[in-house]
Write a structure and sequence with these properties.
By secondary structure, the protein is an all-alpha fold. It has helices at residues 3-22, 28-48, 53-94, 96-119, 123-128, 130-141, 154-174, 181-202, 207-240, 247-278, 287-315, 342-355, 357-376, 380-386, 394-399, 409-436, 443-448, 451-470, 475-493, 502-510, 514-534, 538-549, 558-597, 599-607. Helix 13 packs antiparallel against helix 16 (409-436), helix 18 (451-470) packs antiparallel against helix 19 (475-493) and helix 21 packs antiparallel against helix 23. It starts with a helix and ends in a 12-residue tail after the last helix.
Length: 619
């Protein structure tokens, strides 16, 4: 039989088998039947087409499904156990120095706080606020110094404390992006607050009562903060000490290890919030019981994060940390016809950003200039009335998205969303042209050839912004709704060949992929929060104070300086966040497109048998 006839005869069966192997729901009977047929076809191809590409294709297909059949269940069962019992202890031992530094920084800050309190009796009031200290003094006068833990219901208190502690962990971790110094500064600040609070009670002879109440939950809470500080030091280490890698590669390598350390802390943070909300309020509980819980928490932290890594190293069972995936310096063309896992989508998003970083920073610069000029001129009155500049919060950020007749940004954001989406999509189109070896048109020529689709995208952005702003949604809610607008823009510009209805295409894209979409988007929401926390650290305020102190208030209005710093910082955050969101949705969209249309698979099958013959010895 001729090779072309053999391919034509079996193409449908091979395509069905490959689609089945990539789907989430398996038909075991059909699986078994097709697998037997594939191996039969492979045997035939080995006999008659041993040096042709069809033999390689069938061999890869059979090998891939063999590994999936025999390895999938075992991997699923051992993945979590392997992470908690092998991978994380290895990472902690490898970065034990960073953990020790984080702990020493906290101890130093506590010692500094105690010395400051001894020399300045108002130190606690400066660190904790006058209102809080007045409330504590009233509780002490009422013979219930720990009444602060009884002021609200346990569930309400749990939600509030869990969110607050989570924000502290996130800030401590992501501040490490400032060359690790940011995490050190956050640890110092929190250590000073801790020492001020604890020493306030010591001065009033309430050490034992405060110790049992505070450290009942504080053992886990403060330990989580120290571990997050270590993760922040690891995060910035790649930037400061790249070693033999480039600085970008070293950063992404250290970031992967740091992220694993950070996520290991989240369960501890939530357990600490449960203890603080439901148990700490019972200050009349036996001292021995509370002390036992404190010691159990302490032994758990030391046992898991310190003793277990040391024990594994001593017994020779410590795993040598594997080299993480790092971004290459020479980027291959983007893979449009590949079905990718969540981790691959995230990595490809960063790879795409790195490849076109110059373009994206240019977009960010232009957006920042426009945003700042409009904010300082047309929107100045609105901003000065509704935004509290001396404290960064998502509430402040939400004011920018509020529909208000005085808010001129309500006209800017739909245009900014549209331009950002179109510029990212044009770069994806350039990648397609590169694969097809055709010349890519300029951005404006590409827009001219897609005017109707561009207008549709702009209308979608206006509707999206109008709905979110008039409904009064907060910034975090808007962040999780962003896939709607960015995915819809990709649907308009890169439609399915088999579908002409954009609405149908949009819902097909979400089919069997909504969980992956939420997982990917959550990662980049955390990234945008990291950008936000970077400008809420002391480094930002130190820079602001340094600039404002050297300017004459008679010449330059102090409100102008506040506004200038705020607008530059916030416009950079918004634009960079939107760029990352759009890239991630694009990578996800092309994965879903291949999953539903199999365009790449069809092209691959069409080219089977058409490649030129090779000599047997030719590689």
């Amino acid at each position: 039989m001729k090779e072309t006839k053999f391919i034509e005869q079996n193409r449908k069966k091979w395509a069905e088998f490959e689609n089945l192997s990539k789907s989430r729901h398996k038909d075991s009977n059909l699986y078994s039947k097709l697998y037997i047929q594939i191996t039969d076809d492979l045997s035939y191809a080995r006999t008659f087409y041993s040096n042709r590409s069809v033999r390689v294709y069938l061999n890869n297909l059979a090998q891939d499904i063999f590994h999936k059949i025999f390895n999938r269940n075992r991997k699923k069962q051992s993945l979590l156990k392997d992470f908690w019992m092998e991978e994380l202890p290895s990472i902690m031992y490898h970065h034990r120095t960073e953990l020790l530094i984080s702990f020493i920084v906290l101890l130093v800050s506590i010692a500094m706080g105690i010395l400051s309190y001894q020399h300045d009796p108002t130190f606690a009031k400066k660190m904790l606020g006058e209102g809080y200290m007045q409330m504590t003094a009233e509780n002490i006068a009422k013979k219930d110094p720990m009444a602060v833990y009884k002021q609200s219901g346990p569930i309400e208190m749990f939600i509030r404390i869990a969110l607050n502690n989570l924000m502290v962990d996130i800030r401590t971790f992501f501040s490490g992006l400032i060359f690790s110094i940011g995490s050190v500064l956050v640890l110092l600040y929190n250590g000073l607050m801790l020492s001020a609070f604890q020493y306030y009670f010591i001065k009033r002879g309430l050490f034992w009562d405060s110790f049992l109440a505070v450290w009942l939950h504080g053992t886990l809470e403060i330990s989580a903060m120290v571990i997050c500080g270590a993760a922040g030091l690891v995060l910035g280490k790649g930037l400061v000490f790249p070693g033999t890698y480039s600085r970008t590669q070293a950063f992404f390598s250290s970031a992967q290890r740091a992220t694993k350390i950070f996520f290991s802390v989240l369960p501890i943070t939530f357990v600490a919030a449960i203890i603080e909300s439901f148990l700490t309020r019972y200050t009349q509980a036996p001292d021995l019981l509370r002390l036992t819980l404190i010691l159990v928490s302490l032994f758990f932290i030391i046992g898991y994060y310190v003793y277990l890594p040391w024990l594994k190293q001593r017994n020779g069972t410590l795993r040598i940390p594997e080299a993480e995936k790092v971004l290459p310096e020479h980027f291959p063309p983007f893979e449009f016809y590949q079905i990718k896992k969540v981790s691959d989508i995230i990595l490809d998003s960063f790879r795409f950003f790195r490849k076109y970083s110059g373009n994206f920073f240019e977009i960010t610069f232009r957006s920042t200039v426009i945003f700042t000029i409009i904010g300082l001129t047309l929107n100045r009155t609105y901003l000065l009335q509704d935004i509290y500049y001396t404290e960064w919060s998502f509430t402040n950020l939400g004011h920018l998205f509020t529909a208000n007749e005085g808010n001129r940004f309500m006209f800017l954001f739909p245009l900014l969303f549209t331009i950002t989406a179109l510029q990212v999509q044009h770069l994806f189109y350039r990648e397609q042209c590169l694969l097809q070896r055709i010349k890519s048109p300029s951005f404006f020529d590409w827009i001219k050839s897609n005017l109707r689709r561009t207008a549709s995208i702009l209308i979608i952005q206006i509707i999206f912004y109008a709905m979110t702003s008039y409904l009064g949604l907060n910034f975090l809610t808007i962040s999780f709704l962003l896939p709607v607008q960015f995915l819809s823009s990709f649907v308009m510009m890169f439609p399915f060949k088999s579908s002409t209805n954009p609405v149908t295409t949009f819902f097909r894209t979400l089919q069997n992929g909504l969980v992956n979409l939420l997982a990917v988007h959550t990662v980049f929401v955390f990234l945008s929060m990291a950008f936000f926390f970077l400008i809420s650290t002391s480094v930002y305020w130190m820079t602001y104070e340094a600039v404002s102190m050297n300017l004459n208030n008679d010449i330059v209005d102090s409100d102008f300086i506040f506004l200038l710093f705020f607008l530059i910082a916030i416009s950079c955050i918004i634009t960079l966040s939107f760029i990352f969101f759009c890239i991630a949705q694009g990578v996800f969209y092309f994965t879903q497109k291949e999953k539903h249309t199999a365009e790449g698979l069809i092209t691959q099958l069409e080219h089977l048998g058409n490649s030129p013959r090779r000599n047997v010895l030719q590689k």
